[in-house]
Amino acid sequence: MYEYSNLTIIIPTLNEAKNIKILISKLLQSYKGVHIIVSDDGSKDGTGDEVLYFKNRADVQLLDRSAEKVHGLTASVLDAALRVKTRDIIVMDADLQHPPEKVAALAEALENCNLAIGVRKEVKDWGIYRKVVSKSVSTFCNTVFALRGKKTSKDIMSGFFGIRTKFFQGIIKEHGSSYIGTGYKVLLETLKFVNRDEKVAEVPYTGFHDRMYGKSKAGTKQLMDIIRATLK
Ligand SMILES: Nc1nc2c(ncn2[C@@H]2O[C@H](COP(=O)(O)OP(=O)(O)OP(=O)(O)O)[C@@H](O)[C@H]2O)c(=O)[nH]1
Ligand SMILES: [Mg+2]
């Protein structure tokens, strides 16, 4: 049995007031002993207040990044990761697209390796355009990585992954300045620094669907950042 006091779940947020309390409650209920850091980039919809509902608990921390110079999903995750004290980290979105039930499988995979990637098996709600764009960009990124002798993944754009804290902090300390802080794909950028021989677990999951509440931040700028990060 995995010991959840070894785990910190990092949740980057921007305007997720409708989702964040539901997610935190589910995680605390399912994984006794787990730690949570919500890395918020100055949400204007009261996300921070929703997190402060848990303020009497030492295991739920709000990292308020509103005063930081660089805002972005990537910068928020790296910032939080450097503060983690537990052995393992899982990064997941706030919008309930990453099934909280799958945290268990990712955490258990970390018993035997430094990195475990949540791999989406199907994305039901996406239209044909988003499916084609996503597939093409993933193929492009994996091809570039393979040609450069780097680690590839069946879901290189995944935002749901587990990583050993020491391993991640080592990469961030050495290469943190080369990440695109305003970017979006922390895993993809991290894979650039993972040795090809490194054992990486891929944990398949179904049930990835469109967000129920709140707005998507995915757009053309994020797409360009992915291409830039891949070629860099
Ligand atoms: N801290 C921080 N979090 C962000 C930022 N942009 C997005 N996020 C969070 O990162 C996670 C992923 O963002 P989404 O907008 O859901 O991106 P996506 O999943 O690719 O897009 P959808 O499929 O449409 O939901 C969510 O928890 C967001 O709240 C940001 O600039 N800063
Ligand atoms: Mg999302």
If you had to describe this structure to a student in words, what would you say it looks like?
This protein is an alpha/beta fold and 232 residues long. The protein has a single domain (4-231), classed as Spore Coat Polysaccharide Biosynthesis Protein SpsA, Chain A (Alpha-Beta Complex), CATH 3.90.550.10. It has 8 helices and 7 strands. It has helices at residues 17-30, 47-52, 73-81, 103-109, 128-147, 165-175, 186-191, 220-231, and strands at residues 7-13, 35-40, 60-64, 88-91, 115-120, 161-164, 200-205. Strands 3-2-1-4-6-5-7 form a 7-stranded mixed beta sheet, sandwiched between helices. Helix 5 (128-147) packs parallel to helix 8 (220-231). The chain is globular. 42% of the residues are buried. The mean pLDDT is 94. Bound molecules: guanosine-5'-triphosphate and magnesium ion. Magnesium ion binds at residues 93, 95, 97, 211. The site of guanosine-5'-triphosphate has 20 residues, from strand 1, strand 2 and helix 3.
How helix-rich are the residues, as a percent range? 25-40%
Please give the order of strands in the largest beta sheet: 3-2-1-4-6-5-7
The whole-number mean of residue pLDDT values reads 94
The CATH top-level class label: Alpha Beta
The domain count comes to: 1
H and E order: EHEHEHEHEHEHHEH
Low-confidence stretches: none
Overall body shape = globular
Oligomer: single chain
Count of helix runs: 8
